[in-house]
User: Fold these one by one.
Assistant:
Number 1:
Amino acid sequence: MKKIIITGGAGFIGTHVVRRFVKKYLDCKIINVDKLTYAGNLTNLEDLEHAENYQFIKGDIVDANFVHELFETHQPDGIIHLAAESHVDRSISNPLEFVMTNVVGTVNLLNTAKSSKNPNFRFYHISTDEVYGELGAEGLFTEETKYDPHSPYSASKASSDHFVRAYHDTYGLDIVISNCSNNYGAHQFPEKLIPLAINNIKNNKAVPIYGDGLNVRDWLWVEDHARAIEEIYFKGKTGETYNIGGHNEWTNLDLIHVLCNLMDEKLNRPKDSSKELITFVKDRAGHDARYAIDASKIANELNWKPSLQFKEGLSKTIDWYLENEKWMERVTSGAYKEYYEKMYDAN
Ligand code: NAD
Ligand code: TYD
């Protein structure tokens, strides 16, 4: 049986990747390795607990001994590496944690992977478009765009990307990298814009908009990202980078207006009432003006395209959060974390 390690599988995107692989590749064992930080939540994957081709292992990729043991025990055929500290605002208040997980953790995995006894071992590193910095009103990020990260988060991801390429060039490790735009969908921790706004509107709380709200992001449905990851893992060319994006640019303010209208409808509130919750707050330090992806390489080489229209995706996403109140309560209270930590520390 082939074995694939997925790191960060209990987080937002990882959850969708793990589920896709476990359900589709029954002849392949999927090993989800996650530290279960505040952002990792095993309730995301409860439906897979009894799947025969799935295993969860709690562990920290910053711990080199743990990573070494993991590879010794399981002898994986490849790794899809998503584990990271992922929130820009947290990186501004605690940059070192981002260096530890995103840089040191990635290098630990690379060090172990380069000594893999499996000659066909593949290292797939999941990265972000934020490594390219910011765009003005025109233009798109291509795979050739020069790196120019501005936040501690994007600087740590850029650094890890460089290490991954260096291990390909120096040690001949089979690597692929993808750089994706902002994801949205179910199971995203409500510190990120879309789930935070949904939760606040539902609870009649202020929706904070940083600065003038004119910063632009290119939004992609998370399940389309998971599908791109599957294509790249199996068919991407070694040493290559693939940009992934939604062809779906929105200023934060326009996006929140659409979201407010949908929330009014879904909560049966008077038209335009949610918009009254919009509150302009101090801008994020180093706030990138615009991200937008040229995803023609993955479209041409791997025949991947986004599948969902944004308004449909946003509507589905809102429905998920409104239907999963308990999930929201658990992740915001931190109760789930204590529960699972006790459970896995006891094992
Ligand atoms: P997330 O914060 O929701 O999840 C990260 C997961 O990694 C969590 O389950 C956490 O417990 C785990 N983790 C953190 N530190 C760890 C450690 N030291 N050892 C083991 N596990 C650890 O993040 P996400 O939004 O799902 O992002 C996943 C990946 O995709 C990241 O590498 C991120 O940079 C990248 N990415 C995210 C987006 C986005 O819009 N969310 C866009 C492009 C790329
Ligand atoms: P976020 O979801 O944190 O993703 P990223 O910083 O990786 O793009 O933020 C998306 C955009 O929304 C970004 O321009 C910052 C802005 N934003 C707000 O205006 N208010 C908020 O409360 C948050 C969390 C983000």
Note: The chain is about 45% helix and 15% strand.
Number 2:
Amino acid sequence: MKVSPSILTCDFAYVAKEFQFVEDTGADMIHVDVMDSVFVPNMSFGPPVLACMRKVTDMFLDVHLMMQYPDRMIPAFIKAGADLLNIHLECSSPIDETLDTIRNAGVKTGLTIKPATPAEAAFPYLDKLDLVLVMTVEPGFGGQKFMADMMPKVAALRAEIDRRGLKTKVEVDGGINAETAPVAAAAGADIAVVGSALFNAADPKALVAAIQKL
Ligand code: DX5
Ligand code: ZN
């Protein structure tokens, strides 16, 4: 599995230091959680802050847009330096058009489904996706409990991707730690977002290495 640490739990006054910490753990990329206070009952930051982050790291930026109208901000997030832009299937922007805008700019595409959304709802978009993200908590906050009942959705997406011979990756986000990552890996997930478990780990490097071995 690849590890994408969520920097939602980091100290944003010291973001360069926190990014260095993530890099030193040996993680594969960085998961950046954008929240607009409409799609989820929480708020984080937008393109100007992402542009600051871009200046202090060369790591791949996996940007998770928890936004009601992501299409309005896609050009700004592209300009800010996102490597992958991930929108929610439940948002109010046109999904196909928004994914096309992302892809035509040479940025990787992602689509996320919330816990109540069935895996099959993402099937029509798989051909144009680099990544599909199965939320394993209700989006909005770090530090919540992993929903193991999302694993059949991970398995269904994995099976459909393999059946069609696609290269789309399956990512899981929410409550991933040393105990739950193996459960997600067994269901067929390729990338684990790890937030609070990594920032609170006694040995962050060992946690990343253990998940990468799965
Ligand atoms: C939740 C975010 C997650 C979250 C992960 O809305 O999308 O990325 O912060 O944090 P943990 O690993 O603490 O659940
Ligand atoms: Zn996220």
Note: The mean pLDDT is 97.
